[in-house]
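User: quick one, sequence for these tokens?
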């Protein structure tokens, strides 16, 4: 008698990703541990910060977070993938992972029992367990909590040096005011050169002259030649914002309005012919760019209304800070006045132009600086600490988000797919997102369903 051996089952396809579903949590763990190492290196390098509790607590956060994700996501999914593979090979739904552990995996198990027509008995008919997303979300909250505490301690704990800061802010205010005054004086000088050519001749082509000035002076938005009645003869650029009513007898820069959507600053100078005047309007955006060199800088007019602000502004908004208003009202004419305010700020005020100068608009430039932020900016160790905190936490949070995308969402998609099969819907096989433990479970589901479909056909035939 010939003996025939039983056919062996083809080994089920195994995951091809070495880390499988644990890849994201591993990246998060390594990012946090690398951050702890970097913080330790900064602490060893000197500077007084970070304190050693920062890297130590980060190591604890990394370990606790990884254990949470491993216990609540990685280990259950790995067991589930292995059980699903055995179920597909042997055709026994009883081999699927036990229920009441993880919600999505429990939904798959429950639906497979229904699909197979098995009696549920005490297992019940409702899905149980904790959702897969809980573990990575708890780990993310743990990381975020550490980030908030660490960043607050790093920035808020900087030791200020008020006296030195007051001097620095005063110097910056002096420099910004000088730069703005130089820009305005440069625009007026360009008009004067055009109105009084070196040859001593008279301008015969006003339109060409206005165009040349506008092209050579980026601070202007329009240049016009007007007659003694204020009527434009030729204009280059935008039309005049308001009619010219008072013609100057000498070169001058004036602020032509005290209300409106933007300040109207005009430079004008009589032309050699004595019958016309060159008038140029400054572009407020270009003037604002002059003071935008770091820090918080604003310029107010004699009515203490804002005309320029490095941080963006509404034109002619009142200076409603009593401390700054008092500072602007007592600024000396020849030097900046700087002092530390009571609310943790340092401020300095400086006249933009000397009184009586052709460019004197009565403007006062005010420079502000928060003491704690300035101290932080001067502390290299604290700046480095913030960078390490931001980078390590960002990578860890990104890895946890990747885990949600590549593990939690596919698990939910598989649960919905099997539930539709159990309900009797005709659905095509589900494509694995990638060949990890969940990909194995998806492929096992497809194989299990196909095997039972062939068995049903054989029974019917």
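Assistant:
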């Amino acid at each position: 008698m010939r003996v025939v051996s039983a056919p062996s089952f083809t080994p089920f396809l195994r995951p091809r990703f070495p880390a499988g579903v644990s890849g994201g949590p591993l990246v998060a763990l390594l990012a946090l541990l690398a951050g702890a190492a970097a913080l330790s290196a900064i602490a060893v390098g000197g500077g007084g910060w970070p304190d050693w509790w920062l890297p130590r607590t980060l190591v604890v956060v990394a370990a606790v977070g990884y254990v949470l994700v491993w216990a609540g996501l990685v280990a259950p999914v790995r067991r589930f993938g292995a059980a699903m593979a055995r179920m597909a090979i042997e055709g026994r739904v009883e081999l699927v992972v036990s229920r009441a552990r993880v919600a999505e995996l429990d939904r798959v198990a429950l639906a497979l029992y229904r699909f197979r027509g098995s009696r549920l008995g005490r297992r019940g008919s409702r899905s149980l367990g904790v959702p897969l997303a809980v573990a990575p979300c708890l780990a993310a909250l743990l990381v975020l909590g550490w980030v908030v505490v660490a960043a607050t301690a790093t920035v808020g704990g900087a030791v200020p040096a008020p006296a030195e800061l007051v001097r620095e802010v005063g110097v910056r205010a002096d420099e910004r005011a000088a730069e703005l005054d130089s820009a305005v004086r440069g625009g007026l000088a360009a008009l004067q050169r055009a109105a009084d050519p070196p040859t001593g001749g008279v301008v015969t082509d006003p339109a060409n002259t206005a165009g040349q000035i506008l092209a050579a002076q980026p601070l202007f938005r329009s240049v016009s030649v007007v007659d003694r009645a204020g009527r434009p003869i030729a204009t280059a650029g935008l039309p005049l914002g308001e009619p010219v009513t008072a013609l100057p007898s000498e070169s001058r820069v004036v602020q032509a309005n005290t209300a409106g959507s933007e300040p109207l600053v005009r430079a004008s100078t009589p032309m050699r012919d004595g019958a016309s005047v060159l008038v140029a309007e400054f572009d407020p955006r270009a003037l604002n760019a002059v003071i935008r060199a770091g820090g918080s800088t604003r310029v107010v007019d004699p009515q203490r209304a804002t005309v320029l602000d490095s941080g963006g502004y509404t034109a002619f908004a009142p200076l409603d800070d009593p401390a700054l208003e008092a500072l602007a009202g007592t600024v000396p004419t020849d030097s900046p006045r700087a002092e530390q305010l009571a609310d943790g700020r340092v401020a300095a005020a400086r006249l933009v132009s000397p009184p009586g100068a052709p460019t004197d608009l009565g403007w006062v430039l005010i420079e502000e600086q928060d003491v704690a932020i300035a101290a932080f900016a001067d502390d290299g160790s604290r700046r480095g600490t913030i960078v390490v905190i931001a980078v390590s936490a960002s990578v860890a949070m990104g890895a946890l988000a990747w885990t949600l995308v590549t593990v939690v969402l596919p698990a939910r998609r598989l649960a919905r797919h099997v539930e539709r099969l159990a309900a009797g819907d005709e659905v095509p096989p589900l494509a694995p997102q990638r060949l990890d433990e969940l990909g194995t479970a998806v492929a096992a589901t497809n194989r299990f369903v196909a095997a039972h479909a062939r068995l049903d056909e054989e029974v019917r035939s």
